[in-house]
Structures are given as structure tokens and as C-alpha cells.
Amino acid sequence: MLLRDSRLCVRFWSRCWQRFACPLRIVLAVTLCWVASVAPSWAGGPRWVTGRPYFTTAGFPVVWYTNQPLYFTDPGNLSSSVSHAAADALVAAAANVWNVPTSSLVLSRGGALDEHVSGTNTFLGPSGLILPADVQSSNYVAKQIAVIYDSDGSVTDLLLGNGASDPTSCLQNGVTESVDSIVPAGVIQHAILVLNGRCTGPAPAQQMQLQYQLMRAFGRVLGLGWSQTNDNVFTGSPQATFNQAMHWPVMHPIDIICGPYTYQCMPQPFTLRPDDLSALAQLYYIGQGQAPPGKTDTLLNASQFTGRLFFSGGQGMQGVNVVGRRWSQFTNPSQAENWDTVSSVSGTYYRQSNGNPVTGPDTTMTGSQGTPNNFYEGFFALARVPMLPGSWQLIILETEPINPLYTGQYAVGPYIATVEPSGTDLSLVEGLFSGYQQAFIDFHISDSASTCNPGPDGTETAPAAVDASGWWPGLLCGYGHTAWSSLAVKGNRSLTLEVTAADEQGFATTAKAMPVLGVWNATDARGSLPGVASASRAFNGAATGMTTLTTSITQPKQLRIAIADKRGDGRPDFNYKARVLYADSLTPSTVSGAGGTITITGMGFRTGNAVLVNGVPATVSSWTANTIVATVPSLHTLGVSTALVADVTVQDRSTRGATVMTQALSYAAPVTTLSLLAAPAGTVIVGQQAVVPFAVQVLQSDGVTPVVGEAVTFTVTAGGVQFAACGRRPVPCTPTQTASHRLL
């Protein structure tokens, strides 16, 4: 049932929109990195949302400190084909697209920069680009947005690297934008737009393409995020209709490539769509009765639909694209619009990065976005839904996953890397009424993941023992959950920790949790960064969804192990499978020079694991999770002729995980057994070359007379020669060694 005029909804929007009418406090500015588009974006709404510790507030869109930011253009020509006046006209056309009646924003030209900005007055310094003084962010009061005409591409090359301005890269580098000052109060103070003059030319379409790119860049510096609405226009499946293309937002993440000029792929490419206007409504809202001259109330002839998405167990579900289609009053269902009008991603205003024990808290501006108030974990906002003719309309609310291509600088929603929704997509018909109507409703996805029991994992102060087998499943739930385990290890050992993210069906995935791993000594201070080893980059393993960490231990110790989501998130669908591959001991620990059979004891073993002795393969006869039986090679196979203490490695070739027991297997001194026939003095018949050259005579009991044809068996060791009794007839004999003779 539709809940109208919800107090929760009204409280959220009133505090959000009224906040920007208040006088700004004096704040400390900060200079951000160039090409700020690598920062996360939000769908159909704000590009940034305030959060602590960087921002002084949490859960508000980041907007300009003034509703009337001015842009200032370069006084030079854009190129030999585009004069200064023509360039100014191009910029004005791109900027004026964003001046709409339903938004409080007024974007206009304030004048010219003090100089033509080029490679002659712009340099790379130790902290980034050094620009002329009037272009720098410290000059934001006088000049809020600097538009640079990079006539020879030198500034673009300084920003993006040598060759970036080449005309072959114009689809990517025609316009470079940077919001280079956002302050803790949550407002934008300064931005720069660089137009690559090498992307212009005699063809008018070249200038139109640059205008199109600049229009989208203006949207970014105004604080709008990318949006996924009618995404089949981009994917081509199903083939888009004209109306779907007309409702594909200007702020789509990635252009369609239909020829040399992408603006030609859109009908009416310089017209904002309803979804773009809805995004502006979240950032630059005009309340009822508050419109200044030339403007109208944001919700005049429009409604607003907000709500929350939940897992069936009650936790908010982030990262789901929510779209709305309209259905006119008194018409049958077949007449409902078959295109999306507006969109929003759930959880946009919630905490983007919670930090984690492995990498520590993220105190940067990028890592300080969103409120920790879990009311907003699944919150979405269709901020401005235009009304169809009539006094009321229905809205068809639907959910869908974010396109996995929209990541990194093209990210849509609170997750830089997309997270697949849990359960079946929703398709519900709800009611909206007259203009200014505000509706709020909660949705529980009944077949979504429901369990939020992380199982027997422990805490940092009381970690749970690693499963005896070395294998165990787990769940990172609820929000911010970290799994802690403990493990006792011997000295001179290494181990590999492998954690694979899994979906609700148990299949490995990169679209759910992003595992990061840390290992501490049990005595390390609580709250400290990993004191032994860490894997701070998710999915660094050889297998899908796997994060792996290998570390060596020199002394016996008790370890503390943490498994966390890189974002510090935790949900009912953040399953994982963990494994510790660790070889602890072997029996026997000493074998003869001929090798022998050993049993390795440890954990995390499985069929197919290889055993290596000093890098030489052993022959494995059986595996369990805790034991491996193998026949180790001889010293001769190892290429060694003396006693040896060897390393033993257990290796999983499918994951590249390994565990090494350093100097764990002792080989006794090499033994060689030879059988000779005694011959006249000076002649010896041999079957094998001895390590130490010598000759043998067998003498009669008188100690003088040689015994001809007598068999002699002796053993060569590192310490000398040991003889057996002279054996084929009962004639006493005394073997002697003459080291000066060579055994032939």
C-alpha cells in the first residue's frame, strides 16, 4: 500500500534541501586530484555525498557553494579552425543546457581568464599541475569554473600524459574535467574544464562533438553522477525504440559508438531527459512557493517517489537500480509507457566505505561519503517524476542490476565495482497523485538472501580457531562485519590463505563481497594494521573471486587472521569459502639416500596437490584434507652426493597456493653398494664407478697370496669403505684398500 506524506520522507527531503539555503560557514578548502572523474558516482543523482570524517555532515549531496556559479573562458583561440568567439559560443551552448526552470542553478559566463593557458605557463610541480594564479582553486571567489582552450594540446598532455591530446583519442580526451576544490562543509568551490583544440577542425561536426562532450562534463562539475536509465539503448538488447532513446539520459556513463561522432547516436542530444532533471532536483531543489523570477517550483506538475529496498531478513539492499515508468490515469495496462522515465540507485546516501581492519579507515574525501544511518542503506529517490496529463497517474516501479561495465570512473551508484542484487527483480504498480505529491514505501524482496548469521567466526579479541580441515564457509554479515580466526604455526613454515567470494548458490563471483585478508601476531595490539602480512587488493588470486595471501613464519607463534570486505560492507549475500593451506610436520623426518615414503600432516590439502623436495617432484599416493602420503626422490635424483636437509613444499597448481616446510626432511649419507670379483694384483672387475677411486685385492690368510676370482662385497660411504666377508668359498681373506689405485 502506498504511504503518502510519510514523515520519514518529508524529514529527509526537508533537511536535505533546506540545508543549502543556509549561509555557509567559513571552511578550509582542500585541493583534490586532477581528473576527478575517477571518484565514485551516483546514479540519477549526486556524484558525491557527504560523510565523516572528511565532511562535517553526512548524507547530503555535494553541490556548489553558490546557486549561480560562473565560468570564465580562455581569451585565446581554441584552434586554427575555432576562433575565440566561436569557442565562447560553443561553451555557452553546452552550459545553457543545464539552466532549466525547475532547478535553482543558474550557470553563466562571468568573463575571461587573465591569459591564454598553455604549456608555456602551466607546469607539473611536485604536488601536481601548477596553473596561472587566476586559474588556481584558491581564486574560487573570483572565478569558480575555468574553461581552458588548449589550442595545441599541451595542457591535455601535461594532465593525461604525452600523446593524450592526439586526435585519435578525442572520444576520450576531447574534454578533461576536474573538480579541484571540495571543502569539508560539503560544497564545491572550484572546477576546471580543458578543451583539447586538436579535436577541432574544419568540419562543423567536430565542434558539435566537442560541445556534446563539454555539456556532459558540465554536468559532472555541477555534481551530477552517471545514470542507468533505458540501458538497452547502450546494450542494444532489446533493440531500443525512439522513445527509449529519447529517455536515455545525457548523464549515461558510456557513449554509444555509431561513427566518428557519438552525439549523432542520440536523438536531440543537447536536450536534458527527465532523469537528468530528477538528478538536478536532488541537488538544486526549489521548494513549493520558493521559485525566484524565471524559475518554477521543482515539483510543479511533478511528483516524487522515495522508498527503501530490503533483503527478506530486513537489512537494506544497496546497489540496486530502481527505475520508474508512468501509466496514465484511466488507461489500460497496454498503454503504460514502455520506457524508463527516472532512476535511482538504492543506498546512494549510505556509507560508501566503512574502512576495514586490513587497510584501516579511509579518511580521504572519496572514502568519507555517505551517512552511517542504516535508514538509508537501501534508500532510493525518484526525486522528480513529471506528471502525465490528468490529476493523477500510476508509476510502475522496477528494479534491475547495474550494468557490470559501469565501474571505476564510469561507476553508477554507491559501489565502484558493481554488486549484483539478491533475489528476483521487482515490478510493482504504485500510485502517484497530483503535483507536489511525496510518496514513500518500503519493499522487501521476498526471495532474496535472508540469513545474516556469520557462523562460528570470532572477534578480534576472541578469534575462533581455524577449522581443523583447513576449509570452512563463512558470511560477511551484517554491515561492517569482519571474520576473525586463530592458527598456531611452527617456525620455518609458510602458509597460504585463500578466500573466494561466493553468491547465494555457492558459485564463485566477483560481484558480491570483495575479500581482503590480514594476518597478525596474537600479541599485536588490537586495532593495529596487520603485523605479519596482508592482501589489501581483492581478487588477486588465480581463480575467479579469489583473494590470496602467502606468508612465511620463522618462529613458532599464534596467528590472528581477518577476512573483511574491502569497503567494510557486510550483507546476507556476501558469502565466502576460506582455506588455509599449511604443512605442519612430516613422518619420518629422516630418510635414506635412496628416498622413501613420508606422510605430511597439515590442513587445506586436496586431491591433486603436488609435493616437491627442493623443487623436485615426489610421487603422491594419497590425499586427505590433513595428510598427504608421498614417496620422495633419492639423493641421486636430487643431484646431490652428500647428506642433505631439504625443503618440502605442498603446492596447489590450480590456485598457485603453496606451503613450505623449510629444512624439514633429512637425508642420510649417500650409500653405494658394489660387487667386485677379485683378480690378480692391480686388476679389479667392477660393475659401478666408486665415488672415491680405489683398487681391491683379496689375499689368502697368509696375507700375501692373492685369491683369484673371489667375490668381494663392500660399501662406500662418506666416512670410508666397509667390506663384507669374502664369500664364495670358505677361505679366510682380508680386504685391503689402496687409495693410490683407480677403480676401473
Q: How many structural units, i.e. domains? A: 5
CATH superfamily of the largest domain: Immunoglobulins
| Class from helix and strand fractions | mainly beta
Task: Please give the count of helices.
Answer: 9
Q: Which outline best applies? A: elongated
- The CATH architecture designation of the largest domain is Sandwich
Strand content: 25-35%
Fill in the CATH topology of the largest domain.
Immunoglobulin-like
What does this molecule look like?
- The protein is mainly beta and 744 residues long.
- It has five domains: 63-222, no CATH class; 283-444, Immunoglobulins (Immunoglobulin-like, Sandwich); 464-525 and 544-578, Jelly Rolls (Sandwich), CATH 2.60.120; 583-667, Immunoglobulin-like (Sandwich); 672-738, no CATH class.
- Helices cover 10% and strands 31% of the residues.
- It contains nine helices and 39 strands.
- The strands form nine sheets. Strands 18, 20, 23, 25, 27, 30 and 31 form a seven-stranded antiparallel beta sheet that branches. Strands 2, 3, 4, 7, 8 and 9 form a six-stranded mixed beta sheet that branches. Strands 17-19-24-21-22 form a five-stranded mixed beta sheet, with no helix packed on it.
- β30 (619-623) and β31 (627-632) form a beta hairpin.
- α2 (84-96) packs across α5 (204-221).
- The radius of gyration is 37 Å and the shape is elongated.
- The N and C termini lie far apart (102 Å).
